[in-house]
Amino acid sequence: GRGHSQPRPPRLISFVFLQVLLVFAKEDSQSNGFCWACEKANFRCSMARTPESALECFLEKHHDLVIIDHRHSRHFDAEALFNVWVLTCVLLLRPDREEASVMPLINAGFNRRYVENANVMACYNELLQLEHGEVRAQFKLRAGNAIFTALEQSQEAIEIMSEDQVIQYVNPAYESIMGYQQGELIGKEIIEVPKSEKNKPDLLETINSCIRKGKEWQGIYYAKKKNGDSIQQNVKITPVIGQGGLVTEHVYIQSCKHKDRRKGSLDVRSTTSRGSDGSSQRRHSSMARIHSMTIEAPITKVINIINAAQESSPMPVAEALDRVLEILRTTELYSPQLGTKDEDPHTNDLVGGLMTDGLRRLSGNEYIFSTKQPHHIPSHLTTPLSLNDIPPRIAQTMENEDSWDFDIFNLEAATMKRPLTYLGLKIFSRFGVCEFLNCPEATLRSWLQVIEANYHSSNSYHNSSHAADVLHATAYFLCKERVKQSLDPIDEVAALIAATVHDVDHPGRTNSFLCNAGSELAILYNDTAVLESHHAALAFQITTRDDKCNIFKNIERNEYRTLRQAIIDMVLATEMTKHFEHVNKFVNSINKPLAALEENGESVKSILTSPENRILVKRMLIKCADISNPCRPQELCIEWAGRISEEYFAQTDEEKRQALPVVMPVFDRNTCSIPKSQISFIDYFITDMFDAWDAFADLPNLMQHLDNNFKYWKGLDEKKLHSLRPPPE
Questions:
Q1: Are 41 and 96 found together in one domain?
Q2: Is pLDDT above 70 for 213?
Q3: How many CB atoms lie within 10 A of CB 11?
Q4: Predicted pLDDT at 331
Q5: Active site residue 75
Q6: Catalytic, out of 258, 346, 462, 582
Q7: Which residues line the annotated binding site?
Q8: Domain coverage including residue 273
Q9: Mean pLDDT lowest for which of 66-70, 103-107, 219-223?
Q10: Which residues, if any, are the signal sequence (predicted)?
Q11: Alpha-carbon span 685 to 619, nearest angstrom
């Protein structure tokens, strides 16, 4: 008869699985009566015979109802036992003590007494009365405490007021957003709290009319903060229905508009009502955990600063900051996202092949790279060379090794594919590595020879010639003025050693291939930086297993630890999955601050020599040395392009033979366009990195080679040629 639907009664917790503990010293008709009554009521029943077993049983299950037999008090003292229980308890009394006072029992905390009656229906009725009385009351009380905790922890502003609009409660989020303290509001009528003039004149009447009918109201509402500012909120006002269908309280749930991430118009119902996707709740829950962390990571601090800035930001700024937060919460902060699947397949395949840890394996096929013992020095090399013993023909090919245009392939031919030992001897001598390490030249020679022996000469690209090429580039970069200003002697030695060992025992296959094949190395390193971890670990294993080649034997322990850490860090930096992270950190932590200081004529020493930035410089140095082929003179660039392409072709051939996922389908020797692959590699990986490195180290000759080589590959591609070189005239 009220003209609207009856309010829905509060939802009650189901007690179908009520847990009952019977504490009876011995079995009799009364204990059986309660057991059968529990079964009839569909309650779960446990039995204990001693105080000790009763306590153990209760602590395990935390029963909702405990019934203690006090008819035979010599077995145990019910009043003493009660101190254990934290929920509803019932006491059984003998008939001849029925007239005794119940006050001691009430004082002890018991809820009811039961006069001995073994009749199943009597026991059953007693259980039902307890369920609908004391037990439900206990459940509601506990649920109420939990709800109150949830209100206190909620990130939404919540306000509760009585039917006559007297404020009864506000939560901490309300205090934070509105600027009031709880004591300033509790007990005040709502008309005493200033309201914003931005609301429509009839808005309050519309809200009150809705509430009087027992219906929820949802919409946009402007509230006035204590400091006088108006704040736009998404508000949900829910009436609390008491007995007789009368409204007893109102619950206001308010959230600031900019907290909702979604663009376009705001649908308050979808974000606040039950049955929504829950994304808002999940977001606030996760933010609550972040705010509660005692040890904050830098990214957490950034997120918290942005959240705080949102509170007072205008709507467009708040929405933009929401987008910033979405980006910051992703794991791949530095890796660019390719536009569409229709991008150039050469770029997609190259990026996928170099920057992922493989596809999920498609079959049980396994390609095993066995964990073999490292190679020893070949017998014909057991007598170490010295710089003075280097044959003149080989020495002549190394005369210009300090020039960027040095031809590593001439040295490769002159040394019969052992360029690393000879070039290493000369470069390490030039940088005084033996003096720094306090090691004899014979030890260094032995070390270079055994490292080179563990490179695979059968690989077309990842062989000791590549290692020698990277060592040459590293030495060249270490001589640049800005790099010398930044690095210490220990950094230089670490860089030269890291360059020498950075691809040792490379199998001529990518990380993705090893992971897809289920290789022993991939299993050992959990599909993460597999090859780079192996190169670093094997290098130290080879070096330290034999005093004859242990170049670290005579350095002090702490110096060794520092050197080892730097070498490992540089070798791991050559892994391509973190390419963009390393480049972006270098640009933002070094290049941009340097440019700002130089513009103002200030000293740049603090930026160049900080421990964090020295690490970034060393990572950038070895990364650029590792993939500097497109910046070499054109003939050298073309030769390296042919070698890496052949290695990728061989991998694709093997993937097809082994029925493994083909990581880079474009590298099919029958169809691949080498110019296109080089163009993609330069565009995606090389240009930005060498622009940044050139801005730091000043490398105009490299940038000119890069420009010439890019034009060369473009010219071949425009002629639709797939080969390394144009056909003969």
A1: yes
A2: yes
A3: 6
A4: 56
A5: no
A6: 462
A7: 462-466, 502-503, 626, 678
A8: 154-277
A9: 103-107
A10: 1-25
A11: 15
